[in-house]
Amino acid sequence: MNKQKELMKFKNKYQTFNIKSYLNLGLTKEEIYKLKEAFDLFDIEFKGFLTPEELKKSLNDLGILSKNNIINKLIEDKIKKIDFNKFIQIMGTKSNCKNIEDVKKLYYVFLGNFNIEEKLNVDNFKKVAKELELELASNEIEEMINSINPQEPGFISFDEFYNVMMKI
User: Fold this and answer.
1) Which residues does 14 contact at the CB level (< 8 Å), separation at least 6?
2) How many Cα atoms occupy the beta-carbon half-sphere of 125 within 13 Å?
3) From-to residues of CATH 1.10.238.10 in the chain
4) What tens digit of pLDDT does each residue of 106-116 get?
5) Backbone angles phi, psi at 44, to 5 degrees
6) How many CB atoms lie within 10 A of CB 164?
7) According to DSSP H, which parts of the chain are helical?
8) pLDDT tens-digit profile of 134-144?
9) CA of 67: how far to CAs of 43, 96, 112, 155, 158, in Å?
């Protein structure tokens, strides 16, 4: 589905949703609508909010996260409710990569050396996920890598990594 059709689908689904109040967060309309859709899926009781425990369970059920420091901090701080405004702040955080030097530093974190001629692979992502206490299955990492580089499954070049990081 092209982006225009997808945006129309979201606009029709969320006719009463005021997207304009979220555009200053640096997210695209499509990203905001997708976060709204995710929030609505997690809010199974239609309360308009989630508890940190509900959010953590939903993300764990999807295999996205196991021990997220932000969610754990909300639980520790005894935050009772996460409305969509808070949800978008948590889940819609953009990358801090502003230029090629920032991306090179991050590439180094994944690769473990400064050779940008080397390509990232599943093991590189597993290592970083483990350090961040994220539980990602190998097949999930492979799908992510292959979606970025379908021509060479299992590997991401620096240029491909750079393009992704500058989009997020």
Assistant:
1) 33, 36
2) 20
3) 3-91, 100-167
4) 888 888 877 88
5) -70, -20
6) 17
7) 3-13, 29-42, 52-61, 69-76, 84-91, 100-111, 122-131, 138-148, 158-167
8) 677 788 888 88
9) 20, 21, 23, 26, 28
Q: What CATH topology corresponds to 3-91?
A: Recoverin; domain 1 (1.10.238)
Residue where the block lists tokens 């955080």: 93
Q: Which residue type is seen at 55?
A: L
What is the band of 89 on the pLDDT scale with cuts at 50, 70, 90? confident
Domain boundaries 100-167, corresponding CATH code: 1.10.238.10
Is the model's pTM score more than 0.90?
Answer: no
Contacts for 35 with CB less than 8 Å, ≥ 6 apart: 27, 87, 88, 91, 92
Give the C-alpha separation, 48 to 87, whole Å.
11
Give 92: exposed, middle or buried? Use CB within 10 Å, 0-12, 13-18, 19+.
middle
String of b and e for 1-33 (b: at least 16 CB within 10 Å)? eeeeeeeeebeeeeeebeeeebeeeebebebbb
- How far apart are the C-alpha atoms of 150 and 143, rounded to whole Å? 9
Integer Cα distance of 17 and 21 in angstroms? 10
- pLDDT, mean of residues 126-132: 77
Which pLDDT belongs to residue 119?
A: 92
